[in-house]
Hints:
Blueprint: H1 3-17, H2 22-41, H3 53-64, H4 69-88, H5 115-123, H6 132-145, H7 149-153, E1 160-161, E2 166-170, E3 176-180, H8 183-196, H9 220-233, H10 242-255, H11 260-267, H12 272-275, H13 283-293
Antiparallel strand pairs: 1-2, 2-3
Helix pairs in contact: 1-2, 2-4, 6-8, 6-10
Amino acid sequence: MDWYSLLKHFQSYLRIERGLSKNTIDNYTFDIERLMAYLEQHQLVVSPIKITEEQLQQFIYTLAKEVNPRSQSRIISGLKSFFSYLLFEDYRTDNPMELIEAPRIGRKLPDTLAVDEIDALIQAIDLTKPEGERNRAMLEMLYGCGLRVSELVELKLSDLFFEEEFIKVTGKGNKQRFVPIGSLTQKYIHFYQQKRTHLPIQKGHEDTLFLNRRGRKLTRAMVFTIIKDLAQAIQLNKTISPHTLRHSFATHLLENGADLRSIQLMLGHESITTTEIYVHVDRTHLSKVLTAFHPRK
């Protein structure tokens, strides 16, 4: 079978059997298509069933000259998954990526914002504009609940359980979790919902919480743009994204005494190891903890 046929089978496997999100499947697809483009560029007519470890290693060598180690590591991971699938489905008798190692990369500490910087971002929102209440509610929810941007845009009205003070969030791999929501965030969502009723809501989007001006689901890219524009408006000398608010949520919880296990559950991290990165974020805070509580301070 050719690359395109097996890629379609692999995409179906990721979607149906592994339950991965469209974003994740798109990333896997991009990794494989990058290899396909390399083979075409170098006129290597070889099928995924016949490609050798040496040919793949040569691709990795070329890749190392074009992308940073973190991107290289991600692409290698995607290819390993693809060839593991081919092995599992008996298209191959081996995984040619098995012995190919990803480059070692340092653990990048997440960027965070101070509470006053987050306040300044939210205060910069022009509430006289039709989208003002929506944007304020979105930022409050990103910071107040620690959501990923993909989780934010997929939120439904039916996911809001304000009486119980929780929201239902669908995260990576369609895994669902309940996240607590504070009274302030609830208040701003209520304000937005009053404006939302005046939108021309399109069929199929009646239950979608955050809508664009045409009454359709807001895109991830639009949320990035909104936050970038607000950062420029307050002359914030930092490169930020929706994920910065999620990182800030976790960091501020930890600084104020929350335990890692609770933060892990709220963020939807599968492993506590992922959450532990926040322990390394604020060394000043850790020094204060040592000074305050160690007997030989």
